[in-house]
Amino acid sequence: MCLGVPGLVVERQEATDELAFGTVEFAGIRRRVCLACVPEARTGDYVIVHAGIAISMINPIEARRVFTHLAEIGDLDGWTGDKNEIRG
Amino acid sequence: MKYVDEYRDPQLAQCLLAKIRSSVTRPWTIMEVCGGQTHTLVRSGIDRLVPEDLRLIHGPGCPVCVTPLEMIERALAIAARTDVTFCSFGDMLRVPGANGDLLRVRAAGGDVRIVYSPLDAVRIAQRQRDRQVVFFAVGFETTAPATALTAWHAKRLGLRNFSMLVAHVLVPPAMEAVLSTPDNQVQGFLGAGHVCTVVGYEDYQALADRYRVPIVVTGFEPVDLLEGILLIVRQLESGQHKVENQYARSARQDGNGEARKIIEEVYEVCDRPWRGLGPLPRSGLRLRSSFAQFDAELRFDVAAVTAVEPSECRGGEVLQGRIRPDECAAFGSHCTPDNPLGAPMVSSEGACAAYWKYGRSSQPISIISIGRK
Questions:
Q1: Helix residue ranges, H only, A1-88
Q2: B-contacting residues in A 12-31 (Cβ below 8 Å)
Q3: How far is CA B327 from each of CA B22, B37, B165, B355, rounded to the nearest angstrom?
Q4: What beta strand segments (E) does A17-63 contain?
Q5: Considering the entire predicted model, what is its pTM?
């Protein structure tokens, strides 16, 4: 039930009925999502959506940090994935 | 899918797994709080790939599973009314009450609908003003902003035909309930990433200090879970009990300010009974008196409806991490997702459902259950 799905904000609409909505794309599927809890989210940002509401904006620096931190402390020994991708 | 695929990288997962294996020198028991994490662990086989000394046990983090039977009976009583359109997340429809579930109410002619978002229920109420529309607000802190916004929105719209049956529960009191049992085995927690995304994790250090357990706020993909496990193991091995945040791409220490504000405006903390854990003080949310007009328990006078938990279901012990689902005699024989005895076999987050779905049975599947499938 606490499932949250990351999606790309492709449109932010003006608030209707005092609730902000926008269109969020999930792997090609677009849905109307309430953006009231992420007032800072703009087109091009990624948000985590739960039950039709965006509950957070993904911090791209922190998202990479998981990988860069592991690389720095040598925890990625043997990993040959896309280092450019993780270094962003 | 960005922010999903990179956290499912098998090679990266192997590297993390190797680190975990080389870090574990003694037996440790870790509990993941959230049912979504349970499913990832079982689906990806992480629970079987970590060293034998590292025991992963499944916690009470399935809101469908911990919703007490009396609340299910209240939902059934409201949904059976001819003037009501009853809206719920899909998971709740098959949770058995004493005399059937919400699907049975629908089969008997009740207007029971699955909605993706509670806000959809408000739209239904706007369209059919001659019917009472009720939303079954079940969930942890993660879901509370959605239902709070829904009540707030309904109030702004002046809707008189909308209400919510609120059964919200809070995670930290359940973690404390597990830790405070005399025979507690949990030595570290994988914290629920989306719960912390909403309300933050400022309160966790007090819990970590009081019970001397490390808590690592963790995400939901295999790499997230493996990194969370590694961080806990390193703390355990070095005798630490800090709060760390593996899921920093979404969760911040103080959570989501807007979400916390709307929860605070609409809800107040209350005592709640939990299936499996019993009554826990200050472990739930209820509507504030300023939103009482949207309280379905008052509107339909069902607050007095009570129920007795079925004795055969050992879901309570599963929810406390005391037994694995496959250690229950009913698992896979006369308790399957098609014929569930209790909620943990129904919910998409239930530990019993995860064990069933991903073939984790230490018992031979009986002929009866094969016949039923």
A1: 60-72, 83-87
A2: 17-19, 26-27
A3: 30, 20, 34, 11
A4: 21-26, 29-34, 46-50, 53-57
A5: 0.90
| pLDDT per residue rounded down to tens, chain B (373 residues) | 899 999 999 988 998 999 999 999 999 999 998 989 999 999 999 999 999 999 999 988 888 888 988 999 999 999 999 999 999 999 899 888 888 899 999 999 999 999 999 999 999 999 999 999 999 999 999 999 999 999 999 999 999 999 999 999 999 999 999 999 888 999 999 999 999 999 999 999 999 999 999 999 999 999 999 999 999 999 999 999 999 999 999 999 999 999 999 999 999 999 999 988 889 999 999 999 999 999 999 999 998 888 877 777 888 888 888 888 998 988 988 888 888 888 888 877 788 888 888 887 654 443 333 333 3
Chains A–B, number of C-beta pairs less than 8 Å apart: 152
Closest approach of chain A CAs to the CA of B255, in angstroms?
9
The shortest C-alpha distance from B146 to chain A (Å) reads 6
Does residue B341 belong to any structural domain of this protein? no
Report if residue B53 sits inside a domain. yes
What is the rounded distance in angstroms from the CA atom of residue B353 to the CA atom of residue B369?
15
Query: Looking at the 3D structure of chain B, how many domains does it have?
Result: 1
Distance from CA of A27 to the nearest CA of B (A): 6
Cα–Cα distance measured from residue B55 to residue B30, given in angstroms and rounded to the nearest whole number: 6
| Partner-chain residue, chosen from B2, B259, B349, that has the shortest CB–CB distance to A46 | B2
ipTM: 0.90
The CATH number covering residue B10 comes to 3.40.50.11750
Contact: B142, A4; criterion CB under 8 Å: yes
Q: Which of B1, B197, B224 sits opposite A27 (nearest CB)?
A: B1
Domain ranges for chain A, please list them. 5-57, 59-88
CATH topology for A5-57 is SH3 type barrels. (2.30.30)
What are the structure tokens assigned to B277, written together?
């854990």
Whether B28 maps to a domain, the answer reads yes
Identify the CA nearest to B255 among candidates B313, B197, B182, B323. Answer: B197
